[in-house]
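Hey, I'm writing a tutorial for new members on how sequence and structure tokens pair up, and I'd like a real worked example in the thread rather than a made-up one. If someone can provide the structure for the chain below, I'll link this post from the tutorial.
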Amino acid sequence: MTQFTNTLEFAKSLDAHDVLAKYRQEFYFPKLNGKEAIYLTGNSLGLQPKTALAALEQELEDWKNYGVEGHFHGKNPWFHYHKFLTEKAAKVVGALPHEVVVMNNLTVNLHLMMVSFYRPTATRYKIIMEAGAFPSDQYAMESQVRFHGYNQEDAIIEIAPREGEYHLRTEDIIDTINKNAGETALIMFSGVQYYSGQAFNMEAITAAGHQHGITVGFDLAHAAGNLLLKLHDWNVDFAVWCGYKYLNSGPGGVSGVFVNERFANAPELPRFAGWWGHKESERFLMKKGYIPEYGAAGWQLSNAPVLTMAVHNASLSIFEETGMEALTTKSKTLTAYLQYVLEQSGKGLKIITPEQRGCQLSILTDANGKALFEHLQKHGIIADWREPNVIRMAPTPLYNSFEDVWRVGEVLKGY
């Protein structure tokens, strides 16, 4: 364990030995007060890679020069554009390439997965999830159970932290699964809880669900590009994630989907179908009768959104170069240093994020929390405010430095 020192010299020495430090120069930083900001909100919207513009321009140029023939004759033919991203995305989430596809947006994909994997019966119809999940997940679960004719107060089991605690204990999650197994059709958790920053034990949750024959899925919006994921090895049934947070693919960027290879060749599995998920070799025959493409690609609906995928592809190339192991190794030290600096600030800040986490720290504030948040912004620090009283900071290992973290402490001392 690194022995930290709260000095600029120490922070700079860590940066000097950081093998990922050079990637900071691969991103554009917003400016506050005419100076480059300290950006700690990669958990909400990642920074723009400098390679994004060239990636976009390439597709625009092919559109200009080829028109519709760009589907087959461009530099990166659009007909199978999603394939340029598949292997890179699979490495980010610990999957086999045919278990992953990039398509649509996150909540659209969540609903598509629910069509296939939330299959309630008269006796097993309940969904287990964490209390206080991100609103999109809450709304998706509510609407899905209503769609199947159930009452959400009865059909959705939400697990809350114990009184006086801020995160869930894995044993409480497993205990709830065991107690409700006979009535449960689906377990649907976040990978990282957006408010507290807790990283859930996805392997243990999956194993507990499968012990009772329950399907298990995850929303990895705050986990993909942040945690070292092993979806295939953990035997997760399905997962979804967005591309615009830690994966730096632009506002509203495309989403990713994982479908376990156990379902790779399961045409009988109910799903909503579209022509881009139809068997590729027969797609343009325009025949009736849906034949899904093998693997996760068989859940596609429409043509690839090439322009936003181009940006995503540019960002994924950086992740392929760094590897998630190196990123998460730095993340642990960088986040631990931020915690140390916050504790050294003398402001009595309460961190509610447990040790099981990615790079996000959630800071519980008092009645003056919004004023503290505005003080940070006034001094060039872009953090994230979440009602009613939490400031989220995410020192992202791909582009944040140890000096960034040290400077946060200095700004806090001046509050």
